[in-house]
Every structure is written in structure tokens, then in C-alpha cells.
Amino acid sequence: MIKLCEKLCREHSLTHEECVRLVRGHNPETDYFLAQQALKLRQLIFGDTVFYRGLIEISSFCKNDCKYCGLRRSNKLAPRYRLSEEEIFSGVEKAYSLNYGTVVLQGGEDAFFSPEYVERIVKEIKRRHPEIVVTLSLGEHSRDVYKLWREAGAQRYLLRHETANKEHYDFLHPKEMSQENRLRALNDIRELGYMTGCGFLVGAPGESVETIADNLMFLQSFKPDMVGIGPFIPATGTPFENESSGSIKETLFLLSVIRLLLPNVYLPATTALATLSSDGYEQGLRAGANVIMPNCSPERVLGKYTIYDGKNIS
Ligand code: SF4
Prior knowledge:
- By secondary structure, this protein is α/β, with parallel strands linked by helices.
- It has one domain: Aldolase class I (TIM Barrel, Alpha-Beta Barrel), CATH 3.20.20.
- It is built from twelve helices and seven strands.
- It has a seven-stranded parallel beta sheet.
- Strand 3, helix 6 and strand 4 form a beta-alpha-beta unit.
- Helix 2 packs across helix 9 and helix 5 runs parallel beside helix 6.
- The protein is globular, with a radius of gyration of 19 Å.
- Iron/sulfur cluster binds next to loops.
């Protein structure tokens, strides 16, 4: 197993069969080795810099019904809110005053935030602070909409692919959603010149060694600029509310593998890690992550963006 890990460190690539072997056979010794190598590589490329992104959760409404998500439209227990423009701008000011070079506007697919409304917000942020990088994470849209937002000044887009395995994708999502459209969206985003982020859930119901290997292969071929992965955490009021959470250990192992596969990637230590463990951020950084996304949403909505239970709001 160590030989396979050494090959990954040397060549920064794995075949599907090797991914399967690694996912199936990794152990505390190989996890430690991979984390050391991932940390070394991260330090070689980025030094000790940790990149901060100010996260502003603009709407907890969503038209979709993803089975794993607390914000799914059929979850009557989810608190719903929308930020006003002024609240969004005050989140941006907070991020700016804390010297975060990037803001991330994240939300469910909420028609209230029409393409033109988001366009206006992005333009206004760029007018106020031309140097701030605007990242959007607002779900699936048409190419024209992504183009509109790109031309308004948005530079990055985060859209998790969730799982690269088609059957698994269909299991996690309602009929009207398709992996084909998710990949179409990711390709449009990339072609329009956004720095592009994707990612997946670790330990989601229906996950297998094969689906994890599919995810790693997808990352190798798509070569995203950013990858967000976090342990699955069940959300009350969803079909998966009684499922177990994904494992921190498995997430840390995968963070290290992703750093080694994609040395230059921006890799957040996600809130889900910090939700399951009080030192989750630190553990993520030690495993090869290099991004933290502190929440810059207004106080009145903290804790209401309930994609899963018990979400860390720091
Ligand atoms: S995962 Fe995203 S698209 Fe799916 S229900 Fe949740 S907020 Fe909506």
C-alpha cells in the first residue's frame, strides 16, 4: 500500500483500479504518510498561506429537492430567509474589513434572486471594491445566465458535482435533476472563464469504494481550480435524517489524496469538518487543505442555512 502512496506522491495521478485499491486498503499508517506528503506539497506551492473567503449565505430557499439537503423544498422544518441587498453589502464590508480577498455568495436555487438581480449585486460589489474577488455558488443555471454574471464581474463559481457516479447521482437527487445537466453546467462555467470549483459528499448514503474512485477520477480529468469536500451530515426533515454521518478520518484521507492529485488546487477545510470536530479546520489544514471560509452573513440568519444539522457558524 505504501508503494501505491509513493507512486501518487511522485506522479500525481492514479488509475481507477489504483483508486479502488487505495480507498479500500488505506490505514492509519498510509493516512499519516499521505497527510505528511500533502502538507509538504501544499507548503512547497503556497507556503504557509491559508486563504480566507468570506461566506455570505444569501437565501435558504431552494426549488430543488436533493435528498441529502436540509434546504430541499419539501423540508417544512427548514428556516427560510433571504438577505436584502444591504445585508449582502454589509457582509461584503465585513469580509473586506477583515482583509478577506474573496467573498462567496452562496444560496439555494431561489427564483427571487433573478439573473438580473444577481447581476446588479455583483456589479455593485465590484464598483465598491474592484479588487475583491466575487465567487458565486448559486446552483445550476443556463449558460447565458453564467455569462451574464461573468460579464458583471464574477470570477469564480462553485458547483459541487456531488458524485461522479451516475447511479449514485440519481439515488441522491430527485428525478428532475440529472448528472448530465450538472456536468453541462460545470463545463459552461469553466468555458466562460470562471475559476471553477466542484466537490462531493464523503460518506453520503449509497457511497461505495467505486463511487469514491469515480470521484477521484473525475477530479483528475476535470482538473478544477477548487474542490470542496466534506463529510455527509444528516439533516432533520430529509429522507436521510436517520443516516449516519460521514467520517472525519475518511474526509481527511481524501483531502490528502486530492492535494496530491491536484497540487495547485484550492482546497477548503469545510464547515462540515468543523461541525463534526472542534478542531476540524486545523485537521483539514494539516491534511493538505489551504482555504477557510468564515461566515460573514448577518447575525439574524446565522444558524438558519441548515443544509445539515448542527452546522458550525463561526
Ligand atoms: S443541495 Fe443545493 S440545490 Fe440541492 S436542495 Fe440543497 S440548496 Fe438546493
